[in-house]
Amino acid sequence: MAISKKYLKSKPVCKVTFELEGIEADSIVAVGDFNDWNSEATPLKKFKNGKFKTTVDFEKDSSSEFRYIVDGAYINEPEADAFVYNAYAGEENCLLTV
User: Fold this and answer.
1) pLDDT at residue 88, as a whole number
2) What is the pLDDT of residue 81?
3) Cβ neighbours around 54 below 10 Å, total
4) Which of the following CATH numbers is that of domain 2-97: 1.10.10.10, 3.40.50.1860, 2.60.40.10, 3.40.120.10?
């Protein structure tokens, strides 16, 4: 699992790439504040080499809670910037800061 950030010089945007590999799954979706926790809004594309990947634009100097849904099960990104407890879910969410 990995998160990479690319800041644009031309505007206050950070392109964040979510990439997962080594996971046997039919579908992976990134959900969080950035897409209103919509389980259909941000699917990761599965590549022939087995990696799943998607890129999302975030406003610079912002933060967002997120998780992955892997075949219906929520998982966290171990390389997240931080983790925050969410009382609604009763679990920790990942925190992304750009």
Assistant:
1) 83
2) 96
3) 16
4) 2.60.40.10
C-alpha closest to that of 75 among 31, 21, 26, 17: 31
Place of tokens 């259909």: 40
* 7-to-2, 4, 38 alpha-carbon distances in Å: 17, 10, 25
**Beta pairing partners, 46:** 52
| Mean confidence (pLDDT) of the chain | 95
Across the range 79-90, mean pLDDT stands at: 91
**CB 67, CB 76: distance < 8 Å:** yes
Which tokens is 50 given? 């087995």
